[in-house]
Amino acid sequence: MAKITLSNLRHSYNEAPTGPEDYALKSIDLDWDDGGAYALLGPSGCGKSTLLNIISGLLIPSEGRVLFDDRDVTDLPPDQRNIAQVFQFPVIYDTMTAFDNLAFPLRNRGVDEATVKRRVNEVAEMLELSDMLGNRASGLSPDNKQKISMGRGLVREDVNVVMFDEPLTVIDPHLKWKLRSKLKELHQKVRATMIYVTHDQTEALTFADQVVVMQDGEIVQIGTPVDLFDRPAHTFVGHFIGSPGMNVLACDVRDGRAFLDGEHVALEGPVTGGSEGLTQIGIRPEFVTIGPQGLAATVRKVSDIGRHNVIDLMLGGTRVRAISEGDAPDPGSQVFVSFRQDQTRLYRDGWISTTAGGQGA
Ligand code: ADP
Ligand code: MG
To answer: For residue range 6-52, what is the model confidence (pLDDT) as tens digits?
Structure first.
């Protein structure tokens, strides 16, 4: 196991990049602690696979270094990095049995047969593959093939890191949630550093202790699932995490006070910086309350999503969503909404720009 450091990393697939838009990774500085359970979360195309492939050595970065326990491995090929990588689609040998597929990474390194047998059986049990170990891989369902692929990533005990690149893409929905919690369990058992790449917030939040959120080749926030929900550092994180995501409402800032359509809105704490840039209020639907007073709004739509209702409102020209547990107002009705002050944040050009816990204005 090792700590993994990415230092000043940039990558362009273009041989002669001319500007930031030519970089798949713009500027990455990041430490992955030994034994951590990480998720790398972001929309398709933001650079997640590029980052993984640089850690595994499938790609050499255009700029910057990769260190394993302070040893520079930037130019080492994958087979000398002692890592395991599981891809989106199964990578297995169809003509081999499930057992031999799982045994392959161990036998390849000259591990003795007794240990091979023990490890393969352990991993097969964890992934519920035990009763098909004797079957040829070619006859297995896509789900089971992918489970074998994942097992191959988990079978070695001596790897620096196990990386999963959207491994549940081909898995049936009902098996998905099961495997998701299984992976979490596996991490607790093996304690290897794991990096789990996904564009799905539920997968990321279930698996990881620390979530690294990426957008457009950059890291926008690193935090626990609770951190990301509570205090999104960027409106992108607020949007991307939560369902529905955080309300982001264009506002004016004057003398450190925020105004929505001319109405004063109390913030969680003092505003940092002046009034320049694009200023927006961020408030999660969970903290928007419909009640006897507040800002006048019109109900557009009510969606019953099981445990609660999502209420779509128009506040002047701005759309706001509220989550409400109780009775929902009728569409078309006039109501008042208020924002819980300690959850009302100001963002400037996307980035958080209020200080929590202070006296709001
Ligand atoms: P993600 O895994 O988050 O979906 P990728 O790392 O695959 O994102 O891609 C990041 C960006 O790099 C995208 O714009 C993608 O089109 C581009 N890209 C990825 N692989 C290559 C490649 N082999 N050649 C050129 N561009 C690539
Ligand atoms: Mg990818």
So the answer is: 999 999 999 999 999 999 999 999 999 999 999 999 999 999 999 99
Domain range for 183: 4-230
Ligand nearest the Cα atom of residue 89: 2
Q: What is the CATH number of the domain that holds 107?
A: 3.40.50.300
d(CA 14, CA 21) in angstroms, rounded, equals 10
Distance (angstroms) between ligand 1 centre and the Cα of 51 equals 10
- ω into residue 232 within 30 of 0, thus cis? no
Question: DSSP string of 313-360?
Answer: EEETTEEEEEEESSPPPPTT-EEEEEE-GGG-EEEETTEE-B-TTS--
Give 234-263 pLDDT, tens digit per residue.
999 999 999 999 999 999 999 899 999 899
**CA separation for the pair 148, 155 (Å, rounded):** 10
On whether both 164 and 214 belong to a single domain, the answer is yes
CA 285 to ligand 2 centroid distance, Å? 30
Distance CA 170, CA 176 (A): 9
The ligand 1 site (C-beta within 6 Å) comprises 13, 24, 42, 44-50
Q: Is the pTM of this model over 0.85?
A: yes
Tell which one of 50, 88, 214, 215 to mutate to probe ligand 1, the residue whose CB is within 8 A of the most ligand atoms: 50
Strand partners, 264: 259
Instruction: Decide which of 199, 230, 261 is a domain's last residue.
Output: 230
Residue 198 domain-assigned?
A: yes
Residues with CB under 5 A from ligand 2 (ion): 49
Residues 156 and 301 reside in one and the same domain? no
